[in-house]
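FORM 7B: Structural annotation worksheet

SECTION A. Query
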Amino acid sequence: MKARTPASSPHRLRPPPDGSHALVVLIGCYLMLQPVATDLYLASLPGLGQTFGASAATVQLTLSVFVLGFGTMQLVVGPVTDRWGRYPVLLAGLGLFAAGALACALAPSIELLIAGRFVQALGCCAAVVVARAIIRDVYDPTSGAKVMAQASTILGVGALVGPILGSLLEVRFAHRGAFVLAALIALALLAATLARLGETMREPDRHALAPRKLVANYLRLLRAPEFLAYTQAAGMSYAGLFTFISGSSFVLIQVLGVATARFGYCFATCVFGYLLGTLLCRRLLARRGLLPTLRLGAALSLASGMTMSGLALAGVHHWAAVVGPVACYFFAHGIVFPGAQTGAVAPFPRTAGAAAGLLGFLMMVLAALVSGWIGASYNGTVYPLVLTIAAFSALVFATVWGWISRLRVR
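SECTION B. Predicted structure
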């Protein structure tokens, strides 16, 4: 992999470990905070309603408020990193994540827990935006896609273990155990960042936060076909994944009778598919290039979505008929998502923070809408969940094989 050497910066403590395994691990751990913030407490969602006497729609706000806060603040955090550098924003974000998680663990009401989730979202937002921007700072576009795939593998390991731990913590400590563990993870990452990482940005853009330039940068991105096409592919794929995140505990536990203690294993099976997908993605990118890799992932996404919806419509209502196809969908997501993210940010080296922020904002707005839809449409059956995932799988296929393929031909 080819790595750039950043110029000196007033925020920099030491040279980042360019091109090293340590840097990739740190990037993967920053990205992993997002599934830590969501997957770790999924098994607690049904129990939150009983603990706080709240409806399913209110409990779903603990997820949708996080997603909205995470997505919206990326529009601010991205340009802030372009102006002040990645390092100070990253440190502040890790501290906020830990504080928000502890607030959730100690919350005496569902309203205060939702407020704590918003604080946690701000910290998670900073870490994820900085992780994407660091890849653009340090690596050339081709190597960046491979690094994103490697980091996504690390993310997948965390997401694989998270639901299992979350289920065990829910049985032993209720929801508070998951949030305490999330806070400890963030504090450990903060210590590792202080010890290992410095500033990676070559030269801060002193005008990045000027309102006129900020608007101009975002408008330029929204007019760029490359940004829109790759963002749509990433967003549609992530929306299908987030559909399962939002509704899996209700469908698997309440509809299909999976025990709470075993829910984590079902979810981890799906995440294992994602982990395998990221491993294959790295090989495909090296051997076949970005477009063939995205095409294969999109085709697998469509096949899994159609299989799952077909089984449901045929009356096969068993947990395996959901978990099996979703694991295949997660596998396809592991192939599509790393390349689509990198493809959206790579053409904009001067405004990588803004591009990463806008990409994340658009994905999270869509995820929040999906979360709201799953909460509102839940009717005690599998149909809203499986048909929504199937629809997004078709949109991924259409975006990659239609729009992105035409861009590459040009």
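SECTION C. Observations
The chain is about 80% helix and 0% strand. The radius of gyration is 20 Å.

SECTION D. Sign-off
Analyst initials: ____
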